[in-house]
């Protein structure tokens, strides 16, 4: 609840700060310095070699801030009215509540006319304005060790449904004596976000664009029931990719399939099991029924947003929009993998074959399946409620329906 109280304070402060703001000195040829906070170690070089060269009139200063400290430092800076950057790099999951405060630069004039160039849910802000767009969206896919499946004469069919995947998982269990898995379920918050991705892929969300509760209890319960049933059937490996034992299980081909986004999935497979190059491939998110629309779920993502009271609003706008130029789009591919901007296909090469995945164009394939709109309001509390309920459902302490009721009850009390 501390996070909510901070945001409430910021919302009140926002009125005072807006009232005393000089309002756009950068537009009038004022301050040309541009301070950018980022939590990514790969971003400073890209910003300095790309944006700074494209806009030499700006004095660019890039500051690395640990991802866990970004929101905290913003809250402190906004409360005190000083020590703030012109632009900040935010995890998508933390952006909803922050944007609701109204303390970020309005990018509606720049991004609004390009709305059709983005998939639903990629443009983010509050109910009054657009503040940014999601970069490296966490489109989920199913990563499979095709070679390991082939040893049992098993294969994932083209354009599969989840029923098809479950059938393959059952065949794998029978052929391996229950020692190989097509599904994983991590504990804690990662497990909550895994469930959330499955729920979102079916069109589910917890909050609407106005920050109002919009949960579909039946859909959430059905989704959680599907996942818990997989576990009861012995089709799920319990573990998380941050644990070395997870990668040992992949090396031993105990785990031969897992649902994950590009940043964690592709990156970590190539880093941790390079000797399995050529064995793995990406299956885009399966459909929930034959002929149904193919949509995936969100698991992560980030964005850059300008601060409303920056001394250099034009510089902040130029920086955000630079990411949609040819050079900026290529920089997104080079640093975070997925680009959620439809014209990118005509501007840069998205068909780059990845030899690790047998020459598959995983960036293009993964980005081709969008996720339904999802709004990360009240996320610390929402994630906490989901985490507790999902853990109870998997332990058997609550049925999936009871677990979802508990989530909604907590969210209604916020």
TrEMBL record:
- N-terminal signal peptide: 1-21
> Has the keyword Calcium been applied to this entry?
no
Q: Which InterPro entries match?
A: Bact_solute-bd_prot1, SBP
Q: Which domain of life is it from?
A: Bacteria
Task: Report keywords, A-Z.
Answer: Signal
Name of the protein in question: ABC transporter substrate-binding protein
Which organism encodes this protein?
Answer: Phytohabitans kaempferiae
What lineage, starting at the top, does this entry show? Answer: Bacteria, Bacillati, Actinomycetota, Actinomycetes, Micromonosporales
């Amino acid at each position: 609840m501390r996070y909510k109280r901070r945001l409430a304070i910021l919302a009140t402060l926002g009125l005072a700060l807006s009232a005393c703001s000089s309002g756009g000195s950068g537009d009038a040829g004022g301050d040309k310095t541009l301070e950018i906070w980022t939590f990514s170690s790969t971003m400073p070089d890209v910003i300095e070699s790309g944006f700074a060269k494209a806009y030499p009139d700006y004095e660019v200063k890039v500051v690395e801030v640990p991802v866990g400290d970004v929101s905290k430092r913003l809250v402190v800076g906004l409360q005190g009215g000083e020590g703030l950057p012109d632009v900040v790099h935010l995890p998508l999951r933390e952006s909803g509540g922050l944007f609701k405060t109204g303390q970020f630069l309005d990018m509606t004039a720049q991004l609004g006319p390009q709305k059709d160039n983005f998939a639903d849910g990629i443009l983010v802000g509050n109910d009054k304005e657009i503040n940014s767009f999601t970069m490296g969206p966490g489109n989920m896919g199913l990563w499979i060790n095709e070679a390991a499946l082939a040893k049992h004469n098993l294969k994932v069919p083209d354009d599969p449904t989840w029923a098809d995947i479950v059938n393959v998982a059952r065949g794998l269990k029978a052929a391996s004596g229950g020692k190989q898995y097509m599904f994983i379920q991590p504990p804690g918050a990662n497990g909550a976000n895994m469930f959330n991705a499955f729920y979102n892929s079916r069109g589910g969300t917890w909050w609407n664009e106005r920050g109002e509760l919009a949960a579909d209890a039946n859909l959430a319960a059905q989704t959680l029931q599907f996942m818990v049933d997989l576990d009861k059937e012995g089709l799920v490996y319990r573990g998380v990719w941050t644990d070395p034992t997870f990668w040992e299980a992949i090396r031993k081909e105990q785990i031969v399939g897992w649902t994950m986004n590009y940043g964690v999935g592709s990156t970590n497979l190539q880093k941790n099991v390079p000797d399995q190059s050529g064995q793995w491939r990406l299956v885009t998110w399966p459909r929930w029924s034959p002929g149904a629309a193919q949509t995936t779920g969100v698991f992560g993502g980030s964005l850059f947003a300008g601060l409303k009271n920056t001394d250099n609003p034009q510089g902040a706008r130029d920086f955000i929009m630079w990411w949609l130029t040819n050079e900026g789009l290529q920089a997104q591919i080079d640093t975070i993998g997925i680009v959620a901007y439809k014209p990118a296909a005509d501007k840069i090469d998205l068909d780059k074959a990845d030899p690790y995945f047998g020459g598959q164009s995983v960036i293009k394939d993964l980005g081709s399946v969008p996720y339904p709109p999802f709004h990360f309001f009240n996320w610390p509390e929402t994630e906490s409620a989901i985490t507790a309920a999902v853990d109870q459902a998997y332990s058997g302490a609550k049925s999936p329906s009871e677990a979802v009721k508990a989530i909604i009850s907590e969210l209604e009390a916020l």
